[in-house]
Known about the structure:
mainly alpha
Amino acid sequence: xxxxxxxxxxxxxxxxxxxxxxxxxxxxxxxxxxxxxxxxxxxxxxxxxxxxxxxxxxxxxxxxxxxxxxxxxxxxxxxxxxxxxxxxxxxxxxxxxxxxxxxxxxxxxxxxxxxxxxxxxxxxxxxxxxxxxxxxxxxxxxxxxxxx
Length: 148
């Protein structure tokens, strides 16, 4: 399994915001510089996270972004399902585009589907709070990268 950059960046934004005090606002520029990733990509990611009511976006001169709900209420499996465009890990998972001639008799698709379900089940076991239990270590890496 491989997550898209979109999901990767979504999770990174959430981890970053979860390390901040509840009321503190962050901004896209700060997050982009911390992770050394594209501001344009992050703008799209934060827009969608806002539409999903996971983050709150405050416009204006002193605006920014912050978590809209506590980290313990943000399930990682749910975020991944909402940010990934599909889970077609092989051609036959996409019924409309499947050209594989052995699909009707193939056992591989069942094995891969079982693996996919196990993958998602593991992600469902974790919340954002679980990912930031090492908050002081994360903050030290964030500050190191921001000073470079």
